[in-house]
Amino acid sequence: MDILDRDGNGLTEREFLERYRAGDYERPSVAVDMVIFTVTEAEENNYRKLPEKELRVLLIQRGAHPFLGKWALPGGFVRSNETTEQAAARELYEETGVDNVYLEQLYTFSDVGRDPRTWVMSCSYMSLINSGQVQLKAGDDAVGAAWFKVSYRLLRERKELIEGGYVKALQYELKLSSNYGELTAVVERTVTATETSTATSYTIVSNDGLAFDHAKIIAYAIERLRGKVNYTDIALHLMPKLFTLTELQQVYEVILDKELLKAAFRRKVADLVTETDHYTENAGHRPSRLYRRRLEEL
Amino acid sequence: MDILDRDGNGLTEREFLERYRAGDYERPSVAVDMVIFTVTEAEENNYRKLPEKELRVLLIQRGAHPFLGKWALPGGFVRSNETTEQAAARELYEETGVDNVYLEQLYTFSDVGRDPRTWVMSCSYMSLINSGQVQLKAGDDAVGAAWFKVSYRLLRERKELIEGGYVKALQYELKLSSNYGELTAVVERTVTATETSTATSYTIVSNDGLAFDHAKIIAYAIERLRGKVNYTDIALHLMPKLFTLTELQQVYEVILDKELLKAAFRRKVADLVTETDHYTENAGHRPSRLYRRRLEEL
DNA sequence: TTAATAGTGTCTCTAAGACAATATGCT
DNA sequence: AGCATATTGTCTTAGAGACACTATTAA
């Protein structure tokens, strides 16, 4: 054993680790919170028209303090024998029964006092599943779970010059609606730019019905989703195995909350999908070719 | 007080919180690890030529077990009265003396066993500073700190079809060099795509001289930096107050590790900068106009 | 004068925006 | 026949790539 392998106390690494006892300084609890998105279809009275798509997120009504009766993201504490990613997959499976779906870490929220009980950080994840995969088993629990329709819109924009920079504040209205009612929150994204720095922070301006800082987490997830939709095939994880290009376009539109041009859209997604020989039937109008997600790489 | 505000034990939220005691299940330590980038100039023997830029990252040589003598990212544990962001800013200040710089959360790493002592998660941050802001005070500590030149290159690419999808593995060579020697690691990014999911994971293939999983964190940071350089003004945080467009282009090139076309580059960054009336002097060739980061919004 | 960089002009190529035209199953 | 959607064509516009040309200093 080389002398260089010994520390100031003359211990080797093995000896050091054998003697190591975790200090008794305070440690946080770490939870994962899941923003689980899916897309469903609204009922359509005209059988010849296509149903509208709706972006939905899964929430759970709290049956205990704190935030008793409020709606929260599904989640739970991370265990010492698993990664946050594994914890997220586990929670997702427990909550929805789905497995092998798109899962992405978003951000770790750690505001002091974000949980009134104790020191809890939240490592948030976003998951995209197609509604065919999951039974919408709302209400089979004493404490209910429900898919809330998502709307996220810019409410107002404020720009202020400060010495050596500016502050730009964007307020977004987050509206979540389901049979259980409507939840509304206003989340502000503030960008502070100075000579040498640029910092972005989120704050909850108002909040009616959502637990903890979950309005912030959902807002963050929607922005990540909107961003990635434009340069990845992420939205395809929201589709069933076979789908039409119009359906795919509707999903893009409901995520981005804006209308897209048909021709340009088709060109753009052309190499994200593979065409099949199947067509829609009995739709009351011209049949449409069905596509699936392209898995062979370019 | 409404009866509805009481939980299964008949407690209000206030009563619940007063009685609440944190459970004694295990909690992780949470550290922040900082990937601090700057750009320096290599010495140039020909006084008429422009010096080459180098991307550098700050590392600290460990003076204690575990990984005694290895190089690690600066960092430290998060305290219960601060956010991870505040902890990152605090560590950054302690390590470099700089303040009010660009700081961005990257990813929370939580692999089981990533720290041999105990359960430690790492919430990683990236910071960009210009080398003028900081004294390169390497060696003023018993345990040294040093700025390592960064090279990160694709080494090999493997693509494999599996049932219902594919696996794509990209191996990158991370080379860090300074007066203290050269550290080399190979990090693999694996993308596994199936019918319903796409998952990306990082693994360390080989590692010579870096502590913990820090090779992974640095690789992740470089990829984030490379990605953001193309669609934000993030690179401007690496520049001094006044700079030439050629210098800015050199910084882009050293980050992206590829040459850019001058005319196209200037068009692209035109609205990220503001021109000044100052010029370089005594450069041995035609003077160049100096620019600064544009702070007025478009 | 010349080395070396600064700065601009312009042609091409590709992708996106805009909109129109044509195609087709179903009732 | 005609509704409603499917699918393709093409003109325009914006931006990136490629490359060449001109400008300017200090030694």
Automatic annotation (TrEMBL), chains A, B:
The answer on whether this UniProt entry bears the keyword Ion transport reads no
Keyword terms of this UniProt record = Hydrolase
Please list the residue ranges annotated as the Nudix hydrolase domain: 27-174
Residue ranges spanning the membrane: these are none
Presence of the UniProt keyword Nucleotide-binding in the record: no
Q: Mention any Pfam family matching this sequence.
A: WHD_NrtR
Stored CDD domains:
NUDIX_NadM_like (cd18873)
Which InterPro entries does the annotation name?
NMN_biosyn, Nudix_hydrolase, NUDIX_hydrolase-like_dom_sf, NUDIX_hydrolase_CS, NUDIX_hydrolase_dom, WH-like_DNA-bd_sf, WH_DNA-bd_sf, WHD_NrtR
UniProt record similarity statement: Belongs to the Nudix hydrolase family.
Q: What is this protein called?
A: NUDIX domain-containing protein
Q: What taxonomic classification does the UniProt entry list for its organism?
A: Bacteria, Bacillati, Bacillota, Bacilli, Bacillales
